[in-house]
Every structure is written in structure tokens, then in C-alpha cells.
Amino acid sequence: MAGTPTRxxxxxxxxxxxxxxxxxxxxxxxxxxVSPKLTLNLGVRHEFFTTPSELGGxxxxxxxxxxPQITVGPxxxxxxxxxxxxxxxxxxxxxxxxxxIRLGAGLFYNYFDGRTWYMGAGTTSAxxxxxxxxxxxxxxxxxxxxxxxxxxxSTYSIGSDNSLKxxxxxxYNLEVQREVLSTLSVRVGYIGSKGYHMGRLVAENLRIxxxxxxxxxxxxxSGPVVNxxxxxxxxxxxxxxxxxxxxxxxxxxxxxxxxMLSGNYTWSKALSDSDEVGPAQSNxxxxxxxxxxxxxxxxxxxTFDQRHTLVVNGRYQLPWDKLLxxxxxxxxxxxxxxxxxxxxxxxxxxxxxxxFNNSRNNDSQQxxxxxxxxxxxxxxxxxxxxxxxxxxxxxxxxxxALWFDPCAFVLQTPGTFGNLGRNTVVAxxxxxFNFTLLKNTAIKEGTNLEFRAEFFNLLNHANFTxxxxxxxxxxxxxxxxxxxxxxxxxxxxxxxxxxxLNF
Length: 503
What we know:
By secondary structure, the protein is mostly beta strands. It has helices at 115-118, 328-333, and strands spanning 6-10, 19-20, 23-35, 38-49, 53-54, 60-61, 71-72, 83-91, 99-109, 130-135, 153-158, 168-181, 184-203, 210-211, 217-218, 233-256, 259-272, 300-301, 308-317, 336-345, 349-350, 371-372, 409-410, 425-426, 430-444, 447-456, 463-464, 488-489, 494-502.
């Protein structure tokens, strides 16, 4: 019957693929004892994957985004020149064995393999991952593939000029360890890494923009896209970067007088312009680049940045055990110990979204970021809000009721990108204390009964998830839920009792 057109999306059935790749690797490594106080470790590793091939010849790639069709052949050509040097140093400056200085550096590769690329590597209809049509009068009860003949299709484009560089990371560290007492040691270290040729996704088939006098891109409300033969094109590139710097401290007390204690604290910062394709994008940060022509626009806090991390754990053997003699009192009151682990960390950053494609660039994979209102912090999570349309004034920020101030963000001029950076707002942190009461009872030689009472999140601390990050409705009005946290993450207090017989 007649009515409003209905949009249907047809995904062709996939075919069984038979991909083949070979991994070749060799390495040389040796330790050089320069002196009783100094040891060097030197090495080099070389490994690479061959270019992937599909045994049935059913592979290809949209090599250039403007190509009229997929080119039959390998989906990309792999990099072969991937040498990885290694260097390490261990030095005891005093020769007493109480101080150790360690230095290390190396080059590492994270090879592209598996689902990162294979979805876009076919040449049959399965490589066109969807087709969409508006059907005025749906042919009920079934939608058949013939209805999609000539419909716009979506596909993939892998690499630049049919090549993907291997994601490359340089790791380096410097650590000093000192024995303060016979049972107490302290370790302080700097950990750093720098990544390049990292993977990023790009929405390729956007509207063709013009340049405003101030250099910004301006997209028309309607107009031609880069390749009119396709609907959506997802591009995979290896030109992104990341940088990590961290200070790690460890204080460790070995077991003495029934007590063992360890504390670890890390102060770090992670920056990137695109987080690696594949890992969780749970913080509302799309793995696609906001402005495909300007990767540096997305340089900011990594999704995985966590400024402070603290872990303290310990074990204590209750002291009266050694005062008890054999017999029933020792069986009942002996063998008790307590364990505890306290964890605390800063929150991770996330994006603020407009909620719709106000830039009009035709990107269906992610929403826009808005403008930052003049005079506001790009991480407005402290103080109180002055209020704006849809937001009552005087509300305290940094609480579940209103984690960030929605009034700090305004819609950008339609047809342009917002000026707000990537990952500017930091989510709530995490705290948890787990406690265990443990008793070991010897039954006979080689056999003992273990009782455990375990308390997870003993203090029942509420750890909150991300707030609502979409600030605007499609009509430009503010959403009422922006900045509000409605759920908790992690476990509430849980108690677990157990018995285990060891023999």
C-alpha cells in the first residue's frame, strides 16, 4: 500500500575465503659483560608478513578513492623492511649489589593481520558491505536482492597506493632500584614510547568542500561527493601517531614479621591523533578521523590516557599463630591471615558530540564536535554552571547529576567543523578495595584445608560510568540529559565464601 518510503539495507552473503600469509623472522642477541658492574644487551630482530593472497583470486582493493571500481589483486602490499634493534644496559655503580640502574630501548612492530583489513579485501559482492534503497511500496513479505539492482553501495579502501605500513613503536625506559633495608626496596623509573604509522579509519566519500577566507573547510548543504559511484567508503590508513610518557614508582617490603607490602604509583600522559583501530572505543571516541584532510586537528589526549594510577597490596599473618601450641587451639586459632588490594585511578578522556551532522560533510560514521564557548574550559567539570537554555543555573559540576557543563559548548556554524578538540573532557575516576580473610588448617602431612572469605569492593564505593555526551538534538536545541551519569561501572560489594582441600 502507499505510504512513506522505507529505507532498507541489503548486505550480500559473504563467501568462504582462503587467505594465505607467511611470517618470516630471525634475530641476533647477545649479552656483553663489560665489567663486574656493567652488562650490555644488544640485538636486532627482523620479521615480516608476506603480502596477503586469496587462493581463489577473490581479493582486491579500491586503490584510490576516486576509482570507479575495485581493482582485482592483493588488498595491499605489506612492508618487508622491518628491522627492530634492541639495546639494554644494567649497571651497579657501587658494586655493592644494593643499587641497580637499568636502561633499555627498542623498536617494535604491530603487524596488521586478521579482521583489521580482511573485511575490505574482496572483489565480489561481499566486498560491497551494504546497499541501501528507499522503497515506496515495500514488496512484502520479502525483500529480495533483485530489488537492490543499481542501488548505491558501500565499500572499503585500504592503504595509500595499495600499501599499508606496519604500525611502529619505539619503547625506551630508565630505572633505578635501591635496597634501603634488607626487607625494603624502592624502584623509580621513566617509561616512554612513541608510535608512528599507527592505523586510523577515514570516512572517504564526503561532500566536496570549499575554503572560507579564514582557511576553514565549508561543506554545502547538498552537492557532489568524492565518488558518486559509491554511498559510503571506509578508508584504512597508517599515518597516525601517539606519544606516552610515564613516571613509575614502586615500594616493596618483602615478608618479615608476618607482613608483606607493595605499593605502585604511575603518573603518566598519553597523546595521540587517532587511537589504534580495533581496541575498545568505549569512551565515545570514533576511530575515524574528524577532518580527513587535517590529522593534526585530532592531536590530543588518547582514549587510553590515565593520569594517575595507584595500587597498594599487602598480606599479614596474624601474630598469635606462633604463640599457640599444637592441638585444638592451634587448629582453630592458627593459620589466619588477611590480604588486601586497594586500586585507584584517574578517569579517561572522552569526546563531546553535537549528536548530528551539523558540518554537512556527509560522514555517516561519526557525529560532529561542537565549538567551545568563549571563556570556558574545554574540561568544564568543576565549579557550578551559570546555566543556559535547557540547563538550570547553580548546579554543582563534577557530580553524577551534572558531570560537565553543557553550556560550555555551542553549535558551530552549519557547514563547518567545530573547534573543540578531541578527548577534552575527563571521566570519573575509579576506586576499589578488595579484602580477603584466609585460614589454612593442616590436617596431616601434605594435606590442608583452606577457608577463604573474600570481599570485593568492601567499602561499596560507587564507580560511575561515562555521562551522556551528546549535547544537542537534531533541531539544534540542547538535550536535557547532557552531562548526566545514569549508571555505575564495576561491581557493587560482593562477598564470597569458599573451602578448598589441598592434598
